[in-house]
phosphoglycolate phosphatase (Aliiroseovarius sediminilitoris), 218 residues
Amino acid sequence: MTIPEAIIFDLDGTLVHSAPDLQAATNVVLAALDRAPLDLQTIISFIGDGVEKLVERSLKATGEFNDSLQAEALTLFLENYEQNMTTLTRPYPGVVECLEQLCASDVPLGVCTNKPTEPARRICAELGLTRYFNVIVGAEPNVAKKPDPAPLHGCISGLGTTPDKSVYVGDSAIDFQTARNAAVPFRLFSGGYLNGKILDVPTENCFRDWTEADFLNR
């Protein structure tokens, strides 16, 4: 296999285990609305389409939903989450070592996530990951999110290469569909937040342990 000219990663559920902080912020919102808290696995099943969808799904799972309530809940969620983005969030075991090896091989690295750009950059900074990435692309208002290929194409362009010479690494059906829509080879981290069926990823393109991830030799 030709060594890729760029490797791009999803963030939540791929590089970092962020669900506990997302759960905590969600449950602050639900408590303020006199609703029951949601367990971690339920929150994980809601992750992947951005914080707006996370809040929407959490409201619908616990009671009444309307646009006004969504706006109120989203504001409260963001206020809490912005203060606690890395209270419990940590890189998965082996992530830092893998990124170190890739950087030593001079392969440009990027992040493409449905998390808003500023929180994504802040999490990377607070966890000491920023130095590994040339480009971090997150969600922006009124701009298409994954699985639309535009964010991934933008990240690849920022890394100075083309889709066919890149690799996208993710943990979800959304990530898989994004890579397919963008015509980018895909690698699946099966130890993350896989929340949908992925039928077309060969076993050799899947890994469950970051200490065994190999993006350069196959």
User: Anything to note?
Assistant: The chain has two domains: 6-17+89-212, 19-81. The chain has a mean pLDDT of 95. The first strand starts at residue 6 and ends at 9. Helices lie at 19-32, 40-46, 51-62, 67-81, 95-104, 117-126, 150-158, 173-182.
